[in-house]
Amino acid sequence: MTTFLRIIKFALKNFWRNVALSIVTITIIVLVLFSTSFLFLLNILAQTAIGAVESKIDVSVYFTERVSEDKILDAKGAWEANPAVASIDYISKDQALEQFKLKHKDDDAIKALEQVGRNPFGAVLVLKAKSPDQYLALEQLTKDEKYKSVIMDTTFNDNRQDLEKLKVITTNIRRIGIGTSIVFAIIAILVIYSTIKMTIYNQSDEIGIMRLVGASNIFIRGPFIVESILYGLFASLIAMAILFFPLVGLVSPFVSKFFEGYAEDLFRSFVSNIWMVAMLQMVLGILLSIVSSAFAVRKYLKV
Amino acid sequence: MITFKSVSKVYPGNITALNAVNFHIEAGEFVSIVGQSGSGKTTVIRLLIAEENPTHGQIIIGDWDITNIGRNEVPLLRRQIGVIFQDFKLLPKKTAYENAAFALEVSGVPTARIKAIVPQVFKIVGLEKKMDRFPQQLSGGEQQRVAIARSLVHRPKILLADEPTGNLDSINGHEIIDLLLKINEFGTTVILVTHNREVVNMMKKRVITLDHGHLVSDQATGKYLL
């Protein structure tokens, strides 16, 4: 325990002695962690966006005004049995009227409705496919002879092309993100390696005396490894602080507005993954630091 | 205590530093190893602290054959051998106390024990009132005393002194030799490597003389021959 605490003490001393170098090293690790976290964030965003677009692919079936509710529920039951159908929402005549009123409460359309004097809307079934590819199967269902006479109209929201575009864009951004992360990681490894190398040179007298007076190998090498762990640790804390509050906090309202009604709040979904992101950053930061400092210690610190 | 059996050390470029050197030093002896520059004196020290391995021969300290000592055993060996050098090798940003305590700190000795041991050794070297001074605030002789204090904190059985008076004037030099003799009286084996004729002749102790890597003389109460 005494040895362990002293190794930490020596590491902290090395850290403060070269504080400028330590700051540079931490900054570069922050960049690596930031770019990888950005990738993670992008993944969440892409999934949210794809999910939002996918949820917009549906078929609305408008029934004639006078068709009985039983008949509509019969169609609903029959179509729900189809494997291509994910869900069917039933909007009754009354609900359709309410939705219209709500949507047009501030415009003239509501006056036109008053002139009609009755509920002119038919019931609606909104069919959603299990996957965008099964969209055509839904279209086929609505052409069933049994229900053709009671269906007034059908509308198809086909966003499949948009979805493909979105998938291509996110894949490309992800590729750029991975490339950037790798470049930053290589730079970080080189910077940590050089920092530890310089620290070893600066401490050469002390190291020589340590050897002379019988310091164990772990005591000679340990502080340099612990120093690099400190870099990784500080960097991950800084990266988390930047990522969570200014960035996600600022971006989140815009993203949420864009996907309003389709996806959960970005900030909330990021916060719910906070431990995973924190662990990912910490493990990555410390791992990078240990690997590069171990190389430097192995090469420049003979015991 | 220390046995060199036909020890040779050849450096790259076929430079022979020691050539089939044999000697045995008993526990508690005071031995001077003398010779001119390049005679192999410092190589003996480097072999004794396992800084180097011999090319041929065998080195035994106590019951321990250190000829091909493992890397992990070297720190254990060095805790049993105190070493002082001509250039003192003190850390300038540490006080005299911290320099001596450093040897114990890096060996994992508990702080309470360090606080007990360090003042004791400073008393032995006569610097108990200057423990808080930095090396640059001390004279050359005092700095060498701090180095001796540091070498004694492990209570070593052997003290190796490599030209300890080389950077000191004759008065300070004599004080250091007196201190080494005092430490020897406590039972520590002292090996003094020097080319200071006056010091060697004054002590009338055992003298091993090296010349171009060969042991040319081993006298029980010797003089500086070369």
Q: What report would you give on this structure?
A:
- The complex is a heterodimer of chains A (303) and B (226).
- Chain A is of the alpha+beta class and 303 residues long.
- Chain A folds into two domains: 2-52 and 163-300, no CATH class; 58-157, Alpha-Beta Plaits (2-Layer Sandwich).
- Chain A contains twelve helices and four strands.
- Chain A has helices spanning 2-17, 19-55, 69-80, 93-103, 109-116, 135-141, 145-148, 160-202, 204-212, 217-258, 266-272, 274-300; strands spanning 58-63, 85-91, 124-129, 151-157.
- Chain A has a four-stranded antiparallel beta sheet with strand order 2-3-1-4.
- In chain A, helix 1 packs across helix 10, helix 8 runs parallel beside helix 12 (274-300) and helix 10 runs antiparallel to helix 12.
- The longest helix of chain A is centred in the middle third of the chain and has 43 residues, at 160-202.
- Chain A is rod-shaped and about 100 Å long.
- Chain B has a single domain, classed as P-loop containing nucleotide triphosphate hydrolases (Rossmann fold), CATH 3.40.50.300.
- The longest helix of chain B has 16 residues, at 170-185.
- The chains are: A alpha+beta (303), B alpha/beta (226).
- The interface between A and B is medium-sized, with 18 and 23 residues.
Which short descriptors sum up this protein?
heterodimer; A: about 300 residues; alpha+beta; Alpha-Beta Plaits; 2 domains; 4-stranded antiparallel β-sheet; 12 helices; 4 strands; about 75% helix; about 10% strand; rod-shaped; B: about 230 residues; alpha/beta; Rossmann fold; 6-stranded mixed β-sheet; 10 strands; about 30% helix; globular
The separation of the N and C termini of chain A measures 22 Å
Flag low-confidence runs of chain A.
none
On the 0 to 100 scale, the average pLDDT of chain A is: 83
**CATH topology of chain B, anyone?**
Rossmann fold
Distance between the termini of chain B: 27 Å
**The CATH H-level homologous superfamily of chain B:** P-loop containing nucleotide triphosphate hydrolases
Can you tell me the residue ranges of chain B where pLDDT is under 50 for at least 5 consecutive residues? Answer: none
| Total number of strands of chain A | 4
Helix content of chain B: 25-40%
How large, in whole angstroms, is the Cα Rg of chain B? 17 Å
Number of separate strands of chain B: 10
How would you sum up the global shape of chain B? globular
Distinct helical segment count of chain B? 7
Strand fraction of chain A equals 5-15%
Annotated CATH architecture of chain B: 3-Layer(aba) Sandwich
What's the story with the biggest beta sheet of chain B? 6 strands, mixed
Profile the largest sheet of chain A: 4 strands, antiparallel
Membrane topology (chain A): Multi-pass membrane protein
Domain FtsX extracellular (chain A): 58-140
Protein name (chain A): Cell division protein FtsX
Family (chain A): Belongs to the ABC-4 integral membrane protein family. FtsX subfamily.
